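Q: What structure does this chain adopt?
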Amino acid sequence: MATTSSAYRPAQIWLHWIVVVGVIVQIGFHDAIVAVLDAREAGQVPAATDLTSAWVHVGVGSTILLAVIARFYLRWRYGVPGHAAGTSALQGRLADAMHFLLYGLLLAMVVTGMLTWNGIAPLGGVHFGINIALFFAALAHAAAAVFNQFVRKDGTLARMLPARRK
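A:
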């Protein structure tokens, strides 16, 4: 994967924010999908509202999967901008590792969710554990972006905001 681009492509920026919003939306539909899975396991018919919300969760999860795959492809195909000036080699390696950790956690979330939803493997507990890891990784990622933008003043966050793009 190259670091050849001078800026993120608009598609990379939009896909990033689609994933962010998608992950946040998923939180709101967690209880409903758990209720549907519990009803299925108990041999009961799930409540219609829970089932509708569960299908929203599945749809948003599928959208996240497609967005992550598209982002990974664009990263491979076009590269990403280099790290901001003043970034040490260690900080750069940590940032790269964090990005790939986020990709991996997002893909693992979708795969475990799909396997659980389709009754292939009961991985709801694993799915939830990955959710916790994703929460802390995303929090660290966001904190680093905010720190770099406002403390180091290196423009890191602005590079990923569509409104600030030149």
